[in-house]
Amino acid sequence: MIEYHLPFIVNGRVIEGNDLHLKYRDGEVSIFMPEVSRKVIRKINEIPSRILYEVPSEDIISFLNQVGDLWKNKNYELRKESVKISSLTTGYHEKMIQFSYDMIPYILSKEFLNQTIDIELHNRKFLDEWIKVGETMVRAIPIGKLLHIVAGNVPIVSILSFIMGILTKNVNIVKVASGDPSTFIHFVLSFQEIDKNHPVTKTTSALYWKHDSEAEKECFDIVNGILVWGGFDAVHSARKKSKPNQVILEFGPRKSVQLIGKEVYENDTKLQEVAQKIAHDLSLYDQQACHSPQIAFVEGEAEKLCRAIAKAMETKERNLPKGYTSVDEKTAVSHERMMAKFRGDKVFQPDSTKWTIILTKDFENTVQHPLSRTLYVIEVKDLKEVLEYIDETVMVVAFSSFKRLNELKDEIFKRGVDRITVIGKMGYFPLGYPQEGRRNLSQLVKWVGIDVN
Amino acid sequence: MRVDEILAHPDPYHMKIEEKNDLKFRAIKESFLHHYENCARYREYSESKKITPEEIKNFDDLSKIPLLPINIFKKYDLLSVKKEDIHIVAKSSGTTGNISKVFKDKLTVERLFKGVFKMMDWMVKKRGGFVGALNPPPEENDAWMVQTVSLIFPQYFDKMEYFIKQGKIDIEYMIKRLLNPATPKPRHLFGPPFAYLKVIEGLKKTGINIELDNDSFAVTGGGWKMFADKSIPKGIFREMLSKEFSIPTENIRDSYSCTEINSWIVDCKHFKKHIPPWLHVSIRNPENPDEEMEEGEEGLIAFLDPLAHSYPAFILTDDIGKIVVGENEVCECGSIGPCLHEDIRRAKGAEARGCALKLQKLVNGIK
Q: What is the CA radius of gyration of chain A?
């Protein structure tokens, strides 16, 4: 039995307590946290919504950058502690958590943050100054208090969501995911080490509550915007609880696919390289992310590629191992393998349920996807045939080459996809990418204007 | 057929273990041969796994019989008889995804009746009395559990009534019926656990106390379904019901079944779920369902059901459970094993994790 205690953070103050008990891995792991009362939420509500209005963006960015510097160090105590806990609660292998945390210094670098504002708001000065636009002096002011309901499937999602909120100078309440309460709480604990009284510290809260609690109701009443990440239930529930005039930004649920052209068979080296990239995309976050591929459409004969992917998955298992697999996940994978074998599909698998490649004929067979590093492979004569399966449920489409990407990109976007990339890069969202088809920072500010004349 | 021999046994839950094992083995082997010969898809599947009826030589070989994942019935019409011989198409009551369709011929349904009668004889000891069903009538719901109850109970009890109509529990009518001196005794109740909770809630509002009889049974079935967040530990639940209806706790029993098998598995008075002697249960390794788990270890519940004549009922469920009384053991209640632990849970699908896709539901839900 492993036990950890996590505090919550209210307006920068660290509050300890053990009233709330979260269990993981069939009760083998316990996390204790304080219970959040209505009083706590009222305390957050006492902060003026636009308290950061006058704080220069440079100060905020510099503060975040210092936090990023702390997290750059793999031996930083809070990072080390969080890796351990996050691995136990998410089920990911510690190497996967490290992989995710390695992105923190990059997304908190001055360059990344400044460019993000410039791209999303066109000019970072809108946040700090009045800029003449036509006959109006325009400024982007915070919308107020934001509630972030984050998912635990990608550990740094909580930090990404928070960055959107703080760059736009909003007051942020992050409801951490039960699947990963550790990452954001440890991240915010770092603020204490830099400056306990910094405006970013004093306007950030990291909490956890159970669904439909009094604290949750109170929180939905006081916020001006909600960023909700995750599956259907989380998104639907946030929509139902929100009030008119509250901004809601939804992130999920989506799936992603790969389109592999016949050129991958040019030679064995090329085939292996492609297989390794497919294996990498498939292994990231054990396929629980929206950008994880669920199906690979392959032009021409696919069995050879399946064998190459299977081999690459064995290697991947060594350098990015699969984490804890619950009985439920094993059940879903085993059942899906049996279904596939019953219908005569070719199934490539190890002795365990660590990964599965299913060469199937019909797209319909992919609907009950068990995730857990399972890839359905479907042969097509021409990649154009895949267009009929592409719709708004698809987030990322990854091609085997930029050449093939360019041939089909417009037809794919017309069907509702957000992003097109090449295999091996599905989990890396480049600067400038409009997440969920939006400029999110622009939605988290209120654009106000003064008549010039 | 061998299976009919066990069904005809005067006291199958107390037969000698050797006799039970022998009859069960022969019934299942016979059943495997029948489906292998008459269900082409199942034969192909068995051949792909390199298993033929000749391989099944003794009781231990039963574990070699190829299992069908339970979702097969959501996608394929599996038949070992002609379609025109089908008597009933049983449908599952699943709350998500597609429903299962299981094709049952007359012989399968007759055996189901015989088996459930034997099980009820074992549980309630005396036929007759009254049963109040806390599930909708068959014309309002085509789920197999509802249909089975509507077919079997009127034949077993003197009188049966439905207390749920148009999705609502009619508390007033229930009170009237249960308290009417003319209602046959003993008065039993059957329904899903969440319906009992609603009944208790309703009775509290009226302030009326219902005392059932000493030999009344309150049986639950069907699980908590979409009310899982309200589920109550079984011990506490039994205490609640016992207090509410003034019946002994040992008469509060839970039952377990699924559309794909033709037996009801019910708790004994020690709350162990008794597998009827004609049904074979096996606990499989979730990582590799071809492997059996050691006795007492948790895993996926698999059934070999020889009662099914019209389709192969060799099923791997997605329910997780464990055996607490072995195949060759006798339970403390005096009946023969095997028994499952009273707690059985459905494995959570991928939709509970990650960014699983239920956009269709999302759109429908909001509109």
A: 23
